[in-house]
Design goal:
alpha+beta; Alpha-Beta Plaits; 4-stranded antiparallel beta sheet; 4 strands
Length: about 120
């Protein structure tokens, strides 16, 4: 069954174009290494919750937008290979993230149900 990496980040509103360029570059690399799908989503209707929410999860400020992204892989072995390449590929050395990576939250997930 497939495997998914999920990501949530706070991106400055003024850096949207830079983020899109970064995400497009990353998507091409990740897909070339074996991912089957990369999805990037710019927050449009992200409410503030009473107990917790996406904004608090990434400590988003009023000048930032929550971005929700995921990468799909055919299996965990492919995901592990891609993560290894991400840490060692020379292309990655010159890549800078247009957001505070210390506030990025992410995790890997085994797919339980996939409906279309």
């Amino acid at each position: 069954m497939s495997y998914v990496d999920g990501f949530v980040a706070a991106v400055p509103k003024t850096r949207k174009a830079e983020y899109i360029a970064f995400a497009e570059t990353m998507a091409k690399l990740i897909l070339s290494w074996g991912a089957t799908r990369v999805v990037e989503n710019w927050g449009d209707d992200v409410p503030t919750g009473e107990t917790t929410d996406f904004h608090r999860a990434v400590a988003a400020g009023p000048d930032e937008v929550v971005v929700f992204s995921w990468v799909e892989y055919p299996d965990k072995a492919t995901r592990d290979k891609v993560q290894s390449l991400m840490m060692s590929d020379a292309t990655m050395a010159g890549t800078s993230m247009p957001f505070d990576g210390k506030r990025l939250i992410y995790g890997g997930f085994s797919t339980m149900i996939s409906a279309r």
